[in-house]
User: Which sequence fits this backbone?
C-alpha cells in the first residue's frame, strides 16, 4: 500500500469516526439482579431504574470516581466531549439535536465547568498589573467590567444574538429544517464552548488561533444544516449583519435606561431613539430578506 492509499484509508476511517464515534456493547454477559430495584438485568444498565448492572462494594475507586464525576470525568467525559467538539463539531451538534445525548457531555454543564476553571486559573495566575474596578462606578460600567473579566458569559450573551437570525435564515435547510429557537440556543452554546476553548489556547499560542473560530463556525453550520459552502457563507453573513443590528440597539438602549446622565439630558435623546428604531427596522428587514432568499433557494 503506497502513501496515497494510506492517506485515503486514514481519511475514510476518520470520516467514519466522525459519523459514529462510539460503539456500544453489552458488558454484562450474565443475568444479574439489580441491587436497587430487584429487576433482572441482562444489559449494562437496569431498564427499570437506570442503575448500573455491576455496582460492587464501595472501594477507593468509588471515591475517586465520585470526585471525578463532579468535574465531568466519568462516562461522556468533559474532556472527551471537548475533543469531539474540536474534531467533529458539526457532527456532535447534529447528534445532540437528533437525540443522541449519550455521546456528549451536557453542554450547559460543560460551559459552567469551563467558567469555574477559567475563574480558578484567573485567581491562581492573577495579573498584578490588571486594573481593579473603582468604587462608585455606574451600573452599566460595572456590568461592562464584569463581562470583560468573565469572557465565557460575554461570549454566551453575544452568541445569543445569533439565535433568531439563524432561525430565520436556516429554517428551510435540507437538515434540521424548521428547527426551534431552543435548538438554536444549544447550537450557540456549543459554539460558545469552542470560542472559550480557542481563547484559552490563544493564551499559549498567540492570537493567530482566533482565525479558526470563523472556519469552525462555517463548518458547523454547513454540517448541521446541509447547505453547500456558498449557501452556508451568504446565510452566515446575513446572520452576522442581523445579529449586529440587533445587538447594538439593545446595548445602546440599556445605556440609555441605566445611565442617568443620558436620561436627564433631553438634547439628542429623540435622535438616539430614532436611530435605534431605524437599526431595529434594518435588522428586521435583513432577516426577512434573508429568510425570503433562503425559502426561494429551497424551492428551486
Assistant:
Amino acid at each position: 500500500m503506497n502513501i496515497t492509499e494510506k492517506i485515503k484509508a486514514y481519511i475514510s476511517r476518520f470520516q467514519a469516526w466522525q459519523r459514529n464515534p462510539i460503539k456500544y456493547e453489552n458488558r454484562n454477559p450474565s443475568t444479574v439482579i439489580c441491587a436497587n430495584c430487584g429487576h433482572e438485568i441482562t444489559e449494562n444498565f437496569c431498564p427499570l431504574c437506570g442503575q448500573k448492572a455491576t455496582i460492587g462494594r464501595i472501594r477507593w475507586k468509588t471515591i475517586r470516581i465520585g470526585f471525578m464525576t463532579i468535574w465531568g470525568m466519568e462516562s461522556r467525559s468533559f474532556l472527551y466531549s471537548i475533543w469531539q467538539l474540536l474534531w467533529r463539531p458539526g457532527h456532535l451538534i447534529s447528534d445532540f439535536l437528533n437525540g443522541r445525548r449519550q455521546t456528549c457531555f451536557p453542554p450547559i454543564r460543560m460551559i459552567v465547568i469551563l467558567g469555574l476553571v477559567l475563574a480558578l486559573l484567573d485567581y491562581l495566575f492573577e495579573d498584578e498589573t490588571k486594573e481593579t474596578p473603582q468604587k462608585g462606578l455606574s451600573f452599566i460600567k460595572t456590568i461592562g467590567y464584569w463581562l470583560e473579566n468573565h469572557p465565557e458569559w460575554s461570549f454566551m450573551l453575544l452568541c445569543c444574538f445569533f439565535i433568531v437570525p439563524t432561525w430565520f435564515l436556516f429554517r428551510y435547510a435540507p437538515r434540521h429544517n424548521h428547527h426551534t429557537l431552543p435548538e438554536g440556543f444549544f447550537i450557540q452554546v456549543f459554539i460558545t464552548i469552542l470560542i472559550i476553548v480557542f481563547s484559552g489556547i490563544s493564551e499559549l499560542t498567540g492570537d493567530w488561533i482566533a482565525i479558526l473560530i470563523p472556519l469552525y463556525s462555517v463548518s458547523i453550520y454547513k454540517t448541521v444544516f446541509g447547505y453547500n459552502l456558498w449557501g452556508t457563507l451568504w446565510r452566515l453573513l446575513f446572520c452576522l449583519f442581523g445579529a449586529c443590528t440587533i445587538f447594538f440597539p439593545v446595548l445602546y438602549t440599556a445605556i440609555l435606561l441605566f445611565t442617568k446622565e443620558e436620561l436627564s439630558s433631553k438634547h439628542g435623546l429623540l435622535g438616539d431613539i430614532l436611530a435605534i428604531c431605524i437599526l431595529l427596522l434594518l435588522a428586521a428587514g435583513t432577516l426577512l430578506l434573508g429568510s425570503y432568499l433562503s425559502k426561494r433557494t429551497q424551492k428551486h
About this structure: Confidence is low (pLDDT under 50) at residues 260-267. The longest strand covers residues 32-33. The beta strands are 32-33, 40-41.
